Each structure stands twice: as C-alpha cells, then as structure tokens.
Amino acid sequence: MEGAGVNIAFYVLSILTLVAAGGVMVSRNLLHAVLFLIVAFIGVAGFFVLLSAEFIAMAQIVIYVGAIAVLILFAIVLTPRSVRDNSETAMVGPAILLGVALATVFLFVIHDTGWMTGAGDPGLSASDLGRALLSTWVLPFEIASVLLTAALVGAIMLVRSEAEESEDVPDADA
Amino acid sequence: MLTLEHFLTVGALLFCLGLVIALSKRNAIGVLMGIELMLNSVNLTLIAFSRFSDGPAEIAGHAFVAFIITVAAAEAAVALALAVAVYRSRQTVEVDQLDLLKL
Description:
The structure holds two protein chains of two kinds.
Chain A: H1 4-26, H2 30-50, H3 54-78, H4 92-112, H5 126-133, H6 138-159, H7 162-168
Chain B: H1 4-24, H2 28-51, H3 56-90
C-alpha cells in the first residue's frame, strides 16, 4: 500500500481511534464514554475502508455505531443511578500493568516476526464474501442466525418485568 | 509505505486499551465497552491479515470478521439485558458491589 494519501489516512485514523479509546478510559461520565466509543468504532470502520473491506466497514457502521452504541445508551438510561459514574475499581493499577506488559509483548512479537505477506489482491467484493458465506461457510452462517434468534429471545426474556409476566398467566376466572 | 506491521500495531494497542478498560471499570456497562473495543481490534487484525495475504485466507478473514460482528451483537444484547435485569433486583450495576457469590 503506497501513496501519501494512504499514509496520512492511516496515521489520522490511528490517532483518532486510539485517542477515542483512551477517552473511553479517562472520561468520568458514562455517556461521554459512549460517545468516545462511537468515535473509536468509526475510526475502525475507516481502517476497514483503508484495507479494502468495504462491506465489513459498512457492517461495522450499521451494527456497531447503529445498533450496539444505541443499545449501550439505552442500557445507561435504564440504569439511572449508575449513569454518572465511570470510575475504576481498586484493580486499576494491576489492570494497567497487565495492559502495558501485554502491549510490550505484542509489539515485540509484531516487530520481530518475519511476516510472509503476499501480493494482497484488494479486489475482494461484497459478492465474493456473500458467495463464500453461502458455500464454504454455510454451516457457521446458519448457526450464527440461530444464535442471533436465541440471543434476541433471551434478551427479551431477561428484561421483562414481573407485571408483564403475570399478564401472560391464563386467567383462572375467565 | 504501509505494511502489515502498522495495522497489527494499532490492533494490539487498541486491544490492550480495551483490556485495561474491561478489567478496571466499576460500571458493568463500562466493562462491556472495553470488551467491544477488544472485539473491534481483533476484527481489525483479521482484516489486516486478510488484506496482506493471498488465496483462500483472504476470503476467510472477511468471513471470520462477519461472524465475529454477529456474535458481538448477540453478546452485547444479552449482556445489556443482564445489566438491566441486575439493576432491577439490586439497584446497581457496579461490579464490585455484585458480590452475592462471595463467601
């Protein structure tokens, strides 16, 4: 991947994504943290575009920014007493230590490994992915749809209130 | 010139940031945000490997990411439903106060 534009885009997206992820860490208000999280998601979608994965970038925007972020916002407004607080537990020191140690290991591995990169054909279209999902990956594809259905039913069952549940009980007098 | 290492570095740093957030946040929804960031960084790494490889690995990377996004959506829905359900019974979603199983 060559060209000044690609380089500039990469570094701008890197700074945007990592600063937004850092904002999730440091912001004290959980609502601000969600807004930072949305910026980080959009930055990752930009990386997908940069890596010629247009369909995945579109899915990232639609699912993460469109669905998961809204879901998190709803969960925050449904738990009002905890909304302001985004502080850390007492484990923040060990967590940061572990994160830094893991980052060091990762960076050494990434730097020292001789990656055998191929030519990297960027012409992978959404129709190629669709064909692969319905031929090579058809069993995981079906399992994923069953998983989504089960998760939706499970989520609805979990958040039903007691009053709604008692309404479903058949009335003995009727 | 951008190489695979550039993208892997960003993915690794994003993963570690997500890990620190998931391990250190007090609010269960904050923990979930860290997990989403980690999943996103793994997707970024897989797409980067796919872009810099040839043959069947290329389409496999995209397929893996499509499945990870699906599972992440299901996981987020269930986790947030759990957070709301726990809030209803305990009036808190702070993970250090949810110690019912502690001896």
